[in-house]
């Protein structure tokens, strides 16, 4: 058991937890955002990130520090915390990003971990191989073996109480990602970044990103804190958190600001296209778009970076609160409507509903049915799976209407869940709020619930429905009698 990470509240695979970082002497509440600090170009000072934005942890690049003579000597002499003027935890990358970008770096895992320890890093990273998406299975497998060999090397480096990352690679091959997660979890390393996903996010391949994370999570243990490397846009925080990611690092706040791009939870806007600033952060409360455009390039970039970071931290707080109240999936669904690629990501997440259900809280706030995707949520999957625990006998009425004394038992049936004993009417998620004008997916799911209850049962069932679509009725087992409460019998 890893005693430095504890998950406390769950919603889907999302969890609010505590990551103890012993070398820094701090405990980070997760999900957490790690602003990326370029050691050469600090758009916003780390101290300001701590005091104004509430940053508990940040990430910087130890390879850049090591290969920059002035920075290297300064970091070795003063220590990373003094160099950056930051009192929270500091994670350092190893140069693997440079390896992916330029094809080679001049450092070994032993050397870079020792250097990270020497400059006072709190969470270090070995030199893994970030295999890009869509690489061949052979390439991804070969490079994964190299990464795993380096994790073994990392285990043997004496780094005291510095935590060490165990990156999970494998390109877009689910079997390799799962294998990588299982291998990483078997080490005595501490934090588990899912790597090489930035190209997927840059290309808006959120569905593929979800599949990669789901595969990695199948291999990892529940006590493994998961870092989604390079996941910096607030639009996708809720989705990634729902898949079980605990740490996110963002350079987007600064990179986008340099290009006059303004982050929102619904996407990115260019400053030239804005007549109003739809945000209550301090920057947007002080400036109009015209006033921001009138600033000098450096000052404008700093103000936009501050706005972008405010939006990012606010969304992370929103995600944590949603997990605590059991409304994370509703937040994911709201974000999914911001962009078609996000909807792809949400639908991909629901393809893994059975996996999400394993850690999903059994009791939450009210279930809100918001679209056809809601019919595939983990709560619906759980209800259908638990129907086989029940054994109705005799003639059983499954009805959207009232009890009928001509039957041995009367159960309620409601889309999207399907049938349930009336005594459960006031239990979650059967207290769901659903629209009057339901879509076909809700009726299909309810019919699947009827089929789940009937499977293996000797009872005789009658389904009394209110104008269910023919497509849904075709999913009801043949032996079930159908009665339309609006007057038509089947």
Overview of the structural elements:
The protein has 490 residues and is an alpha/beta fold. It is 41% helix and 17% strand. The protein contains 21 helices and 18 strands. The longest helix has 29 residues, at 297-325. The radius of gyration is 26 Å and the shape is globular.
Q: What is the alpha-carbon Rg in Å?
A: 26 Å
- Kindly report the spatial arrangement of strands forming the biggest sheet: 6-5-4-11-10-9
Let me know the largest β-sheet. Answer: 6 strands, parallel
Helix percentage range: 40-55%
Weakly predicted, low-confidence segments: none
Distance between the termini: 57 Å
Given the helix and strand composition, which structural class is it? alpha/beta
Quickly count the helices: 21
Strand elements, count: 18
What form results from the Cα inertia axes?
globular
Give me a quick take on this structure:
The protein is an alpha/beta fold and 490 residues long. Helices cover 41% and strands 17% of the residues. α11 links the parallel β10 (226-228) and β11.
């Amino acid at each position: 058991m890893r005693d430095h990470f504890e998950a406390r509240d769950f919603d889907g695979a999302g969890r609010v937890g505590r990551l103890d970082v012993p070398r820094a002497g701090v405990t980070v509440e997760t999900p957490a955002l790690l602003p990326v600090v370029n050691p050469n170009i600090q758009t916003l000072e780390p101290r300001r990130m701590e005091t104004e934005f509430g940053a508990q942890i940040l990430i910087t690049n130890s390879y850049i520090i090591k290969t920059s003579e002035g920075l290297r000597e300064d970091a070795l002499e003063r220590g990373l915390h003094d160099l950056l003027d930051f009192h929270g935890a500091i994670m350092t990358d190893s140069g693997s990003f440079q390896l992916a970008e330029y094809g080679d770096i001049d450092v070994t895992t032993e050397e870079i971990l020792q250097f990270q320890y020497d400059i006072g890093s709190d969470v270090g990273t070995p030199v893994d191989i970030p295999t890009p998406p869509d690489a061949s299975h052979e390439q991804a497998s070969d490079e994964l073996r190299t990464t795993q060999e380096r994790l073994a090397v990392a285990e043997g480096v004496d780094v005291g109480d510095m935590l060490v990352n165990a990156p999970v690679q494998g390109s877009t091959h689910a079997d390799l990602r799962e294998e990588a997660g299982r291998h990483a979890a078997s080490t005595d390393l501490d934090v588990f970044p899912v790597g090489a996903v930035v190209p997927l996010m840059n290309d808006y391949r959120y569905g593929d990103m979800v599949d990669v994370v789901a595969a990695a999570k199948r291999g990892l243990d529940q006590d493994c804190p998961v870092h989604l490397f390079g996941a910096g846009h607030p639009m996708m925080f809720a989705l990634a958190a729902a898949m079980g990611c605990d740490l996110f690092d963002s350079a987007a706040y600064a990179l986008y600001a340099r290009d006059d791009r303004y982050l929102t939870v619904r996407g990115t806007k260019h400053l030239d296209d804005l007549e109003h600033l739809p945000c209550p952060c301090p920057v947007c409360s002080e400036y109009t778009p015209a006033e921001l455009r009138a600033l000098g390039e450096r000052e404008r970039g700093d103000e936009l970076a501050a706005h972008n970071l405010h939006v990012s931290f606010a969304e992370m707080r929103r995600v944590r609160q949603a997990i605590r109240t059991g409304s994370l999936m509703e937040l994911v669904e709201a974000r999914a409507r911001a962009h078609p690629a996000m909807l792809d990501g949400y639908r991909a997440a629901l393809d893994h509903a059975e996996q999400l259900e394993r850690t999903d809280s059994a009791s939450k706030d009210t279930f809100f049915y918001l679209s056809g995707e809601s019919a595939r949520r983990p709560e619906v999957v759980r209800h259908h799976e638990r129907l086989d625990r029940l054994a109705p006998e005799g003639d059983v009425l499954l009805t959207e209407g009232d009890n009928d004394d001509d039957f041995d038992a009367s159960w309620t049936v409601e889309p999207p869940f399907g049938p349930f004993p009336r005594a459960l009417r006031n239990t979650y998620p059967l207290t769901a709020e659903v629209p009057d004008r339901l879509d076909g997916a809700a009726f299909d799911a309810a019919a699947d619930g009827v089929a789940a209850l009937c499977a293996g049962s000797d009872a005789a069932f009658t389904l009394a429905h209110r104008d269910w679509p023919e497509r849904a009725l075709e999913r009801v087992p043949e032996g079930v009698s159908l009665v339309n409460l609006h007057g038509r019998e089947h």
